[in-house]
Design brief:
Helix content: 40-55%
CATH topology of the largest domain: Alpha-Beta Plaits
CATH class of the largest domain: Alpha Beta
Number of domains: 2
InterPro entries: RT_dom
Structural class: alpha+beta
Pfam families: RVT_1
Shape: flat
């Protein structure tokens, strides 16, 4: 379609640790969790205390005022429900949400329209984050243009200026999202090189222990430390 494409890679500061309990409970009630179920979840979230241990010494207890319990089964689910309404604040970009990894994608017929659309929704996102007491790590938030080599070359002198919180976001030529390296031409070259390095290291380790273990053990090790690199994101 010969459109200009852009992706913004959002980085949230300590996303799981800054979830506001009352806002979360309000959203749970909005989603239909009421009565004793809501009371139980409120008891689970609030009045939690934590302390640190160094050898046989303990610190004093501190009340946990925000955040969801990490390492728990409910923690990730609570966070997903907390950000479930984020897409409603966006009008011109499409969000891709996976836990605290959030990407915004946009397409437009001109670079000016693309810049306007992205900056407009980043302002909407800023307001949503404030309302939900979450913080953006602007220094780690990046954007990347996506297109063919001729297209990227033609617009090299007119790249968009992308801002949030009045701070210009850094442009990158490749990024890593959910463990996959993506470049601006979608060539998958960098991702393939990364996989080859990891596979080579795994095979080298197997070769070193080969004289000391049987074939079944070698196959088990291969399926554990090598094959996952081939299987990940291949479907």
């Amino acid at each position: 379609r010969k459109m200009f494409n852009l992706v913004v890679l959002i980085d949230l500061k300590k996303a799981f640790d800054t979830v506001d309990h009352q806002i979360l409970l309000n959203k749970l009630e909005l989603y239909g969790i009421k009565g004793q179920a809501l009371t139980l979840l409120k008891s689970y979230l609030t009045n939690r205390n934590q302390k640190c241990q160094i050898k046989n010494s303990f610190s004093s207890e501190r009340l946990i005022k925000c955040g969801v319990p990490q390492g728990s089964i409910l923690g990730p689910l609570f966070f997903l429900l907390y950000i479930n309404d984020l897409p409603h604040c966006l009008n011109k970009t499409k969000p891709q949400l996976f836990a605290d990894d959030t990407n915004l994608t946009a397409s437009a017929n001109s670079m000016t329209d693309l810049e306007t659309a992205v900056n407009s929704d980043l302002e909407n996102l800023r307001k949503w984050l404030i309302a939900n007491k979450l913080s953006l790590n602007v220094a780690k938030t990046e954007f990347m243009l996506i297109g063919s080599k001729p297209m990227i070359k033609n617009i090299s002198d007119s790249c968009p200026n992308v801002y949030i919180e009045n701070i210009q976001i850094k442009q990158v030529h490749e990024c890593k999202t959910l463990g996959v390296t993506i470049d601006q031409h979608l060539s998958w070259k960098s991702n393939t090189e990364n996989i080859c390095k990891k596979v080579t290291a795994g095979i080298s380790a197997i070769r070193r222990i080969k004289p000391f273990v049987d074939q079944d053990t070698l196959i088990l090790i291969y399926n554990t430390i090598v094959r996952p690199y081939f299987d990940y994101c291949c479907e």
